[in-house]
Amino acid sequence: MSVAVRKLTWDDLKDLPEDAGRTEIVDGDLVVSPTPSDRHQEISTALASKLYPFVRRHNRGKFYGAPVHVVLAEHVNFEPDLCFLATGNLHRLQSPVIAGPPDLVIEIISESNRTHDTVVKFQNYERYGVAEYWLVDQREQYISVWSLEQGRYVSLGAFAAGRKLQTHVLSGLDLDPAEIF
After folding, report:
1. Least CB-packed of 5, 58, 89, 156 within 10 Å?
2. What is the pLDDT of residues 68-88, one digit of tens each?
C-alpha cells in the first residue's frame, strides 16, 4: 500500500488555531517553531519601537511588529519576526497575508532555529525577492543587513553597538544597535 504525500500551502495553515505556535511552510513541508524567548520578544519590541514610528512619520508604508504570514510561493510561506511593506507594494497586502515579498524582513536569531533563519530563510528570501533582510544575532549582539542586488544578497555590514546601521530600504533611519541590545 502506498501513501500519497502532498505539499502543503497557505490554505492548509490558515485555519489552524493561533496557539499552534509559529507555523511556516518550506517547500511544502510544515515547520513549527516554539514561542520565542523573553529576550527574543524584548529585542523585537525594541526594534518595533524604533521602526514603526519612523515608517509612520515618513509615510513609507506599513510596518508589522508582530508576526504576519508572508506567502512567497504556493509552497513557501514564513512568519517573520518583523517586516515592512513599502507604499508602492501595498497591493501585496491581501489580509490576512502578504502575498509576495515584503521590502524588508527582520529575523531575530534564536539558538533553537539558527540554521532556519541564517540558511533556509536567507535563501528563500533572496530567491523570492525580499529587497532587504536583517538578521539580528542576540547572542553576538549585532545586526547584519543584506541588500538584494541583481537577484543576490550583498552584505551592507554587521552592525554592533556604536556603529549606525546602514539600510537602503529605510533610508534616513538613525539606528544604533546599542538601543536594541
Report:
1. 5
2. 899 999 988 999 999 999 999
